[in-house]
């Protein structure tokens, strides 16, 4: 319990209360201000009358404050109701989002299925294209095989002609070598004759 001495309209009073001293001083200052305001407006009023009018003013302020509090409480209650309604809307929206996610996943799965079908069709077309290329390649190989057999016969003839030409070259080389040897011998025989003729 706190007890403070306060002055209201110049008179000291002892106030007791559970509240803090600062709070009790604020109450006394508020009442003092009300009384002084009333007495300044009507100096002929007695202290008792001024105190009664101040009490009436304080009660008026109290009622107005209570009215304001009630309005604020009503607004607070309305906000709480709105908050509950908003929370329900949020839950509904979450549920809707969940359904949309599920629907989106189904659509994505279907889309992926369609993409797989398209990819499969493309691969089948590629396989058909490769089969056609393979068929054409086989036909080309068979044609080249026929051409190669014909070429093989020509190749054997060319080999024979080439071998004959080699033999002719070897024979000509041998003849050339013999001719060079004979020429060397001829020169050797000719040189002494020239020398003797010169002497």
Automatic annotation (TrEMBL):
Main location, first listed in the record? cytoplasm
The record's keywords, sorted A to Z, are: Cell cycle, Cell division, Coiled coil, Cytoplasm, Septation
Q: Which SUPFAM superfamilies match?
A: Cell division protein ZapA-like (SSF102829)
Biological process (GO), any one: division septum assembly
Whether Nucleotide-binding counts among this entry's keywords is no
Q: Which GO terms describe its cellular component?
A: cell division site; cell septum; cytosol
| Location(s), subcellular | Cytoplasm
Instruction: Tell me if Transferase is a UniProt keyword of this record.
Output: no
Q: Name one Pfam family in it.
A: ZapA
Where are the coiled-coil regions?
A: 62-189
Q: Which residues form the signal peptide?
A: none
Which InterPro entries does the protein's record reference?
A: Bac_CellDiv_Activator (IPR053712), Cell_div_ZapA-like (IPR007838), Cell_div_ZapA-like_sf (IPR036192)
Assembly with partners or alone: Homodimer. Interacts with FtsZ.
Its function?
A: Activator of cell division through the inhibition of FtsZ GTPase activity, therefore promoting FtsZ assembly into bundles of protofilaments necessary for the formation of the division Z ring. It is recruited early at mid-cell but it is not essential for cell division.
Q: What is this protein called?
A: Cell division protein ZapA
Taxonomic source organism: Clostridium oryzae
């Amino acid at each position: 319990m706190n007890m403070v001495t306060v002055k209201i309209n110049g008179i000291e009073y002892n106030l007791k209360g559970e509240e803090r001293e600062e709070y009790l001083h604020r109450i006394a200052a508020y009442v003092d201000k009300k009384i002084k305001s009333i007495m300044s407006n009507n100096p002929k009023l007695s202290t008792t009358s001024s105190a009664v009018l101040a009490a009436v003013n304080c009660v008026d302020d109290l009622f107005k404050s209570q009215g304001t509090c009630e309005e604020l409480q009503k607004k607070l209650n309305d906000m709480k109701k709105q908050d509950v309604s908003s929370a329900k809307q949020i839950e509904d929206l979450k549920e809707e989002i969940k359904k949309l996610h599920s629907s989106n996943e189904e659509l994505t799965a279907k889309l992926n299925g369609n993409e797989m079908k398209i990819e499969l069709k493309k691969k089948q077309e590629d396989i058909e294209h490769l089969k056609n290329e393979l068929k054409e390649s086989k036909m080309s190989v068979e044609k080249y095989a026929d051409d190669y057999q014909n070429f093989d016969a020509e190749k054997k003839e060319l080999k024979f002609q080439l071998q004959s030409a080699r033999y002719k070259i070897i024979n000509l080389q041998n003849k050339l070598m013999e001719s060079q040897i004979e020429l060397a011998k001829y020169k050797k025989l000719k040189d002494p004759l020239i020398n003797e003729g010169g002497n």
